[in-house]
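Justification of computing resources. Each target in the renewal requires a structure prediction run like the one illustrated here; the chain below, 262 residues long, is used simply to show the kind of job we budget for.
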Amino acid sequence: MPIIDAHTHIFPDRVAQHAVESLHDVYGVEPVVLPTADNLLRHMDESGVDFSVVCPVATKPEQVRSINRWILQLPRDRLIPCGALHPACDDNEDEIRRLLDAGISGLKLQPFFQRYTLDALATQRLMEQIGDQFLVIMHGGDEIVPQDYVEPTPQRLAAFIDRHPYLRVSIAHLGGYKFWDDVEEYLVGRNVYFDLSYTFGKAPEDQVRRIIADHGYERIFFGSDFPWQAQSEALAGLSSLYLGADQETAILGGNFERAIAK
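Resulting structure tokens:
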């Protein structure tokens, strides 16, 4: 069974350095390596990862077309590109069709950087357009640097899921970065996936193990959040849970393969 990192970020070569500098202003962290496609592929070789899911974010509606144009040009022998959409984009239906025609099976949404709320009318309209056609990878919880206002809290994400039960959703960072108590209260057991990106070394290990057990290991994806965490570090974190071979194999790749096949 292949190892699939279900949550990574890269940028076009010409803007990667600028993107890292801009994100450093927000997060105050350094990437493990400059996040370009070639560097990710080399990092995968070093870490023993077979495939990586690329999660782009269109921070402005006018970026949607250009980001998707770049995404569709990425090599797909080892990279699994997701599409970018924005609720304020005026041609989302055309972009959805373009992505589907190109064989794209996932989308990445990030309310903090995209500046929208989960209950806004434009957001609800976009979710109706998306339907069950993609796996939606949704940021969950706080940012690396704590924010005064956090939109995708587990409680708000639970309400979002209730409003759009037809969506296929994977919530990043084990359901909500730094909100793992609320994840246990509001999200565990719901019909959503969690990925493990930027979780190991951040959340208490016993809580990570408990959330996986209570939510169901078959709804958990391995992820690193490259370039903000090394894939080798995330793999070591998963191994340290001692979940057993069947569970670990499913989390490392089998669960994601089944999710995008639907």
